[in-house]
Design brief:
With 276 residues, this protein is of the alpha/beta class. The chain is built from ten helices and eight strands. Strands 1, 2, 3, 4, 5, 6, 7 and 8 form an eight-stranded mixed beta sheet that branches. The protein is globular.
Length: 276
């Protein structure tokens, strides 16, 4: 019996792209990454054997969960068991910090991996849209107090958060410096080329670690060093989004294996891999 997981690095605003990853968990083998894309639209339009042109830009859009699920079913013949999303999400319209945010921040703030503060504008409407679409498609949101059923017929969605998950994946003292928009903040004393080299090394480290957990990850993603060498630094943003989506899918795999901890309450819950 194989299980399926979708990871979504959901953008907090519709004009920003959202990374998407699809993973299959065979009964007697490690999980395998089947597809990854830098946006909802790219995930849905790609041919089965198409390679991403990382030098191109992708555009954001509102989420279209029915279309995404149709692609998953076409590729695998089945629907996902778990969808893990990196975005504040829950049954109540989100207007500010929640119990889940406070609990994760309390646990990981010393390792520089506290949560961002959600607002009614960001990601309020997008979160509500995702919750409604997933619920309409037959998926159940799982909170910290929920009874968990992990079988081939389960259809659930959970909130994930890559930063602390990556800390546990790599056994780090603090969050990994891999966000392309923060190069100057990370390394203020380095010049531009050295900053790009440093972030490429961290992206490579994350890619290698995820490939050990999810077969095929390194095949789907080129090296960050090659992207920097052959294209503009801006192409790394889509690469980063794809890695975050894969990280979310890995969290979903850990959830199915019973190796996640729930931070939150009945209204807000973030699921993270059990600390090492």
């Amino acid at each position: 019996m194989s299980l399926l997981v979708v990871g979504i690095d959901a953008a907090w605003a519709a004009h920003h792209p959202a990374g998407v990853a699809l993973v299959k968990i065979p009964q007697r083998d490690r999980p395998r990454l089947l597809r990854v894309a830098r946006s909802y639209e790219e995930f849905c339009r790609m041919d089965d054997n198409e390679k991403i042109d990382w030098s191109t830009k992708v555009h954001g859009s509102e989420p279209n969960i029915p279309a995404l699920l149709a692609v998953c079913e076409r590729i695998t013949g089945a629907m996902p068991n778990v969808i893990a999303l990196d975005i504040p999400i829950g049954p109540q319209f989100i207007t500010g910090r929640r119990a889940a945010d406070r609990m994760v921040t309390s646990t990981y703030i010393k390792r520089k991996a506290g949560t961002h503060s959600p607002t009614a504008k960001r990601p309020g409407p997008i979160s509500q849209m995702l919750f409604e679409q997933l619920s309409a498609c037959g998926f159940k949101w799982l909170h910290a107090k929920a009874k968990i059923s992990q079988n081939k017929n389960s259809r659930v969605f959970i909130e994930a958060y890559p930063h602390p998950a990556i800390i546990e994946l790599l056994n780090l003292d603090e969050r990994l410096k891999y966000k392309v928009s923060k190069l100057q903040k990370y390394w203020p004393d380095l010049n531009r080329d050295k900053r790009r080299t440093a972030v490429a090394q961290n992206l490579a480290r994350l890619r290698a670690a995820l490939d050990k957990r999810l077969a095929g990850a390194a095949d789907c993603l080129p090296s960050a060093k090659s992207l920097i060498k052959n294209g503009p630094a801006s192409c790394l943003k889509g690469y980063e989004d794809a890695l975050d989506a894969i990280a979310c899918a890995w969290i979903g795999c850990e959830f199915l294996a019973g190796r996640c901890v729930a931070y939150g309450d009945a209204d807000s819950t973030i699921w993270l891999p059990r600390p090492t």
